[in-house]
Amino acid sequence: MKVLVFSIGADRYGLRLGAIARVLPAAQLRQLPLAPPFVAGLMDLHGEPVPVLDLSRLAGVTPLQIWFDTRIILVDYEVGGKGGNSCVRPLGLLAEHVLGIETLIEADLADSGIQAAPFLGQVAATGAGMVQLVELAQLLPLDVRALLFATSAVAP
């Protein structure tokens, strides 16, 4: 499986390439008052407001600094809707250092056993070090989904 690898602090994380729509340079973000600290703000993507999460803050690490290799990873985020319907909305993930693409062997993936951060998934050891997968489906609690996306598209 191919993943985009990025770092949060000294640790390496990965997102499955199939989940990624685009990778963009860091952009100016509009702040969202009263949003949780891990919400970096809104970016303007061709006239559409897209919420952006600061992956460093979400992981409980010192907030990121914008570097040359800081990127906004744009993903198609599935938002559960009423009556079992769901829709896909763009979501930006601000990653401090994007390191590149690596291949992980699925047989090498192991459960991390981490309960404190439900969005962190399986782990694989690579020649460059350990990579832990970020699971998009478990990234946001329902109340934050309702805050960031139209409440008409979010289940109560």
Automatic annotation (TrEMBL):
InterPro entries: CheW, CheW-like_dom_sf, CheW-lke_dom. Residues 1-153 form the CheW-like domain. One of its GO terms (cellular component) is cytosol. Gene3D superfamilies: CheA-289, Domain 4 (2.40.50.180), SH3 Domains (2.30.30.40). GO terms for biological process: chemotaxis; signal transduction. This is Chemotaxis protein. It comes from Massilia psychrophila.
